[in-house]
Design goal:
The protein is mostly beta strands. The protein has 1 helix and 17 strands. The longest helix has 16 residues, at about 5-20.
Length: about 210
């Protein structure tokens, strides 16, 4: 049987590779907004490791609306590819994806819904405090490409002269906007690696003027 003393060393090698590989996103199209995320992977043994995740979101929203009127904003994430292996070790899957979008200022949330996406397992959307949270409960195999569901926010515009802007949530590793868990088999062990991400800069996804 492999000694448990090997586990810390192998875990660190694996996470070091995950830092390099991350999730792979295709180049954003002209209509997409690129989003840079700062991520931290925390193995069960050893130090936390950081890496950057580059993604994209296609936002659909009106340029302007009248004060008090109802309108919708749809945020459609670009596809992402999960590495099949990292530093010679198999990445079995990622799971428990949770994406947060704050309810935009100068607007009232009337409803929220999700559509499409290719993520396996059940997906749901719910309001938690001042955030809208999209959760994918299924497991996404390593080596596969997936797309998170598109999120639609039904909003009522606030005061005239203001602006309604949508962004991804998260301000730190301790208060992330995107979380998931990587599952990696290591001999007789299976390592679960929680990962937390937040936007390295507050990129505006959509902007609607209120007249």
């Amino acid at each position: 049987m492999r000694s448990t003393s090997v586990l810390p060393r192998v875990t660190l090698v694996l996470i070091g590779g995950l830092v390099t590989a991350g999730l792979v996103a295709p180049p954003a199209s002209a209509a997409d907004t690129p989003v840079d995320l700062a991520c931290q992977a925390t193995p069960p043994i050893g130090s936390a490791q950081t890496f950057d995740l580059h993604a994209g979101v296609n936002a659909t929203a009106p340029d302007s609306v009248a004060a008090g009127s109802r309108f919708s904003v749809t945020l459609a994430p670009d596809p992402l590819t999960v590495p099949g292996s990292v530093s010679g070790y198999t990445l079995r899957s990622i799971s428990g994806i949770r994406l947060t979008v704050p309810v935009p200022a100068n607007a009232t949330l009337l409803g929220e819904s999700i559509t499409g996406g290719t993520s396996p397992g059940s997906a749901s959307v719910a309001v938690s405090g001042s955030d809208v949270v999209v959760t994918v409960n299924g497991s996404i195999p390593g080596g596969s490409t997936f797309t998170l569901p598109a999120l639609t926010l039904d909003l009522a515009a606030g005061a005239a002269g203001g602006t309604v802007r949508t962004m991804l949530g998260g301000t730190s590793y301790a208060s992330p906007g995107l979380t998931f868990t990587a599952t990696v088999p290591l001999g007789f062990f299976t390592v679960q690696v929680p990962t937390a991400c937040f936007p390295s800069s507050q990129q505006v996804l959509s902007s609607t003027n209120v007249d």
